């Protein structure tokens, strides 16, 4: 699963969190084929598999000197010039103490390096020997686009007049996208100059990453239903269709891991803080550390995250040294609730690409993704595709075959009832009304519930439930469909069935605007709607719908669109190709 | 002389009220645990307690046997402090955090056998919570069910219990891993 390391070299990197020099040095080590392990406390951790150490500053060396000296393995130390707000006397003393450690270490155990020629000269004057230049150096910067530093501290402005926080990206990634001015500005710390020199003003000899099959990680959030899982499976399938050798793993917070594995993908099952009642801060520390370590071993080209926001654990892991080469793609469904918090849109600054799966009801979308007034968009590109649905292994079965597989009667009209991930929460009335309307019309109901949902506690007596995934392939076996209006259920019903559809949107602030989606379909004549709150004669609506089911009259006018997953796959693979040397 | 109750001080009245609220809350939590336990038993006795398998049609390039990634040795050399482990929604204890954390190895058993074994162990856990449980599963099969009732899970996917033990000890402070079916000791942090 891991890309080859150079002669199995494993480096323990000791660096302060957020140290941009370590991010850049980590990229050098990774591109040279070395495997990085981040170590925060060498005195208390198992580090038996390491071959040597890389310490990103004299301060870190002094902090862990007893453990490193006792360990005996080779130590490379990047000596730094004075950092921001570091007093001159303290900086000099730190360098002298670091140098003095060589007398206690085994001969040749500690080697000193510097980030720039200026640093080499200045530090050499103090400790009496010139440190080596940290090599190999980066090649010519791939990006010439000059970034500007806004007066407000820590905010960068791109040539396209978008913004990002200076710490939003791993600087090994930043150097690919834009160029920070390296000339000495008033007040800039010498160490900041050195970092810029190291990252942007060097030439020559960093070896190119060998071209390899695309490798991706799909991060699946814990959703109420299976929308995130299904979309990511569809995209993964489309990537494999275009690049059959692609290596894809799922980092899944959804418990639907068994379904992902059944689709033929590797799955690493995770748990959210809410799953285990963990302190979110502690949970995020674990998740960021483990995801970051996984990325350093698996070395993907890109991480895809289908979610309403980019969790801090994820962009934190991408900022860790050694992970600067990983692109981030945000699969961001639209149709957020009107008035929903637009803050998460600023997570665009962490992303290379934002892909929006199209929505047939986009015309009624009043959520914040439409205007997309995010302040921080960074370098992210945006693309909206046609709706994304699961295709592979979900091809529509002929009516007879679908009925045969589900054990349905040949002649009697049958209506599918699928009320979503949190099925039957507050739906007892609808459940009873649906059952009664079907009985009066002589229609058999086939109830399905989410594979994630438990048995309903009430309101569903006598109903036999089925758990069926994927559902789309069986739709031709039904004469009518009663369904919630989540993204996947809605689009499968609209695009893969000609039978009458009754939409029962769920009202939940955590979910997309199902009411708007369903109302648009009703306005277009594609479906009926059983509105959860508006004054409506539910009995009359259900009677009308069941009559249409009984007639088996196909519904005309529903749109026909090509699937969107191949467009997403093509864009993602192009992004990966563009980043290769 | 009045028959009225002697006047309480404000402080005494507040303490009485708080005690009563605490008692009410404890009773409510115990009732909720009972409710969840009964729901769990209904689930376990149902036709497919662990969910029906996926029914994909033919998938081009399908690779059978997808499971946890082989590179799941992703643990960092810098483990943060252990995470909390929940008691599960079917049980209640006045101070669950004082209960030890125990790994329960869940092998890949036929659904009926697995349901019976879980009924036994979780019945004991409901009546008298003896530990906070982390289910260490050979496959994904029981994950949705166990998660539904608030239990922590870890899927081995080919890794041995002995290999996973040290990592589970760091992540959840697990002291032992025992077999679901007979409580045999499979791994202990003390070796």
Number of helices of chain A: 19
The overall strand count of chain B is 5
Range of strand content of chain A: 15-25%
The rounded distance between the terminal residues' Cα atoms of chain A is 22 Å
Structural description of this entry:
The complex is a heterodimer of chains A (581) and B (191). Chain A is α/β, with parallel strands linked by helices and 581 residues long. Helices cover 34% and strands 15% of the residues of chain A. Chain A is elongated. Chain B is α/β, with parallel strands linked by helices and 191 residues long. Chain B has four helices and five strands. Chain B has helices at 10-45, 111-127, 143-148, 161-172; strands spanning 101-106, 132-137, 152-155, 176-179, 185-188. Chain B has a five-stranded mixed sheet with strand order 3-2-1-4-5. In chain B, helix 1 (10-45) packs antiparallel against helix 2 (111-127). The longest helix of chain B is centred in the first third of the chain and has 36 residues, at 10-45. The model of chain B is unreliable at 64-75 (pLDDT under 50). At the A-B interface, helix 8, helix 9, strand 12 and helix 11 of A face helix 1, helix 3 and strand 3 of B.
């Amino acid at each position: 699963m891991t890309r080859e390391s150079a002669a199995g070299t494993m480096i323990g990197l000791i660096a302060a969190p957020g140290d941009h020099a370590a991010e850049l040095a980590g990229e050098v080590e990774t591109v040279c084929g070395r495997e990085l392990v981040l170590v925060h406390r060498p005195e208390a951790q198992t580090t038996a598999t390491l071959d040597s150490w890389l310490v990103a500053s004299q301060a870190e060396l002094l902090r862990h000197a007893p453990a490193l000296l006792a360990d005996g393995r080779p130590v490379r130390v990047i000596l730094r010039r004075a950092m921001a707000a570091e007093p001159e006397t303290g900086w000099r003393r730190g360098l002298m103490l670091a140098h003095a450690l060589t007398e206690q270490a085994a001969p040749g155990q500690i080697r000193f390096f510097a980030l720039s020629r200026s640093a080499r000269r200045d530090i050499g004057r103090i400790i009496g020997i010139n440190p080596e230049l940290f090599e190999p150096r980066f090649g010519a910067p791939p990006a010439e686009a000059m970034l500007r530093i806004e007066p407000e501290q820590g905010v960068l402005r791109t040539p396209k007049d978008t913004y990002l926080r200076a710490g939003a990206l791993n600087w090994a990634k930043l150097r690919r996208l834009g160029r920070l001015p390296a000339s000495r500005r008033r007040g800039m710390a010498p160490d900041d100059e050195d970092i810029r020199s190291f990252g942007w003003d060097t030439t020559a000899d960093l070896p190119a990453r060998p071209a390899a099959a695309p490798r991706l990680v799909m991060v699946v959030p814990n959703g109420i239903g299976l929308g995130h899982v299904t979309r990511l499976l569809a995209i993964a399938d489309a990537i494999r269709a275009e690049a059959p050798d692609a290596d894809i793993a799922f980092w899944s917070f959804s418990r639907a891991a068994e379904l992902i594995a059944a689709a033929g993908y590797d799955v690493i099952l995770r748990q959210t803080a809410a799953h285990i009642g963990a302190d979110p801060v502690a949970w995020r520390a674990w998740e960021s550390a483990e995801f970051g370590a996984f990325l350093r071993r698996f070395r993907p080209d890109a991480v895809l995250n289908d979610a309403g926001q980019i969790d801090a654990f994820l962009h934190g892991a991408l900022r860790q040294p050694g992970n600067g080469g990983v692109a981030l793609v945000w699969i961001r469904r639209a149709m957020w609730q009107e008035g929903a918090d637009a803050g998460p849109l600023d997570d665009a600054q962490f992303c290379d690409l934002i892909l929006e799966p199209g929505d047939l009801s986009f015309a009624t979308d009043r959520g914040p993704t439409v205007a997309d007034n995010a302040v921080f968009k960074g370098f992210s590109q945006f693309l909206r595709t046609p709706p994304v649905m699961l295709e592979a292994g979900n091809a529509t079965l002929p009516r007879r075959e679908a009925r045969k597989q589900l054990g349905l009667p040949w002649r009697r009209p049958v209506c599918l009832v699928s009320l979503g991930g949190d099925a039957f929460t507050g739906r007892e009335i609808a459940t009873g009304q649906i059952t009664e309307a079907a009985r009066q019309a002589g229609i058999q109901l086939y109830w399905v519930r989410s594979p994630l949902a438990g048995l309903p506690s009430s309101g569903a007596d006598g109903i036999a439930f089925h758990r069926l995934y994927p559902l789309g392939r069986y739709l031709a076996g039904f004469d009518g469909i009663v369904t919630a209006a989540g993204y996947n259920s809605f689009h499968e019903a609209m695009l893969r069935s000609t039978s009458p559809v009754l939409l029962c949107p769920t009202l939940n602030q955590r979910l997309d605007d199902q009411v708007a989606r369903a109302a648009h379909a009703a306005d277009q004549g594609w479906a009926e709607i059983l509105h959860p709150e508006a004054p409506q004669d539910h009995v009359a609506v259900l009677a009308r719908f069941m009559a249409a089911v009984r007639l088996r009259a196909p519904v005309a006018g529903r749109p026909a669109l090509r699937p969107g997953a191949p467009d997403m796959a093509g864009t993602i693979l192009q992004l990966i190709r563009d980043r290769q040397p | 002389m009045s028959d009225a109750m002697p006047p309480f001080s404000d402080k005494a009245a507040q303490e009485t009220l708080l005690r009563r609220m605490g008692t009410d809350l404890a009773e409510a939590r115990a009732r909720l645990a009972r409710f969840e336990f009964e729901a769990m038993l209904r689930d376990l006795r149902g036709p497919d307690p662990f969910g029906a398998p996926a029914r994909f049609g033919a998938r081009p390039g399908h690779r059978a046997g997808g499971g946890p990634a082989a590179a799941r040795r992703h643990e960092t050399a810098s483990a943060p402090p252990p995470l909390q482990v929940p008691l599960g929604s079917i049980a209640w204890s006045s101070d669950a955090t004082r209960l030890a954390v125990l790994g329960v190895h869940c092998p890949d058993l036929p659904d009926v056998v697995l349901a019976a074994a879980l009924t036994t162990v979780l019945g004991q856990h409901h009546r008298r919570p003896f530990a906070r449980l982390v289910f260490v599963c050979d496959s994904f099969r029981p994950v949705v069910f166990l998660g539904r009732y608030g239990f922590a899970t870890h899927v081995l996917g080919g890794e041995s219990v002995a290999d996973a033990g040290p990592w589970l000890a760091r992540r959840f402070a697990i002291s032992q891993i025992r077999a679901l079916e007979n409580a045999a000791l499979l791994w202990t942090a003390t070796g």
